[in-house]
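Dear colleagues,

As part of the handover before I leave the project, I'm documenting each prediction I ran so the next person doesn't have to rerun anything. This entry is a single chain, and its sequence is reproduced below.
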Amino acid sequence: MAIDFKYNNQYKEPLSSHPMDYKIYLIEAKYHLAVAERLMKGYKEYPEKRFLVGVISELAKALSKLIHAVLIKEDFVKNGADAFFKKIAPKYLEETIRINLMKIIEVAKAQRASPIEFTKGDNIILLIHGKYRFLTVDRIREFMKSTKDAILTFSTTFRQI
């Protein structure tokens, strides 16, 4: 799985790889996770289901920042996200968390590329490669928990170093 986080999509500028910048990216990862959590709370209170799409987007941003922070700290920046999933994450994260993190990236990319996207009940329905795919609220909550666990794991690990 080749994932390119070479450029920050939000600002269209190269991501920094200065050794101390990992702290900034870690803080930004926590921020995007907090936004996703607030959107999930908003989803419970309001009938507008578009909150779920925002949750996916914010989780992907949080994961992107986390991956870049870890790559900087572990000195693997030039190797990209593949190095994160193949070399670094197995040392720190359980397999289910790693799988969910990869799925978040896949779902976020599919959501951006999907020509049709709508919500029905507690599901997001995407048209991906001519097939309808359903994403449930429970699955999104699982993604959020995995992202939070990964951020907490690396935050704790980096504090001890």
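The longest helix spans residues 22-45. The two ends are 30 Å apart (CA to CA).

All the best with the project,
I.
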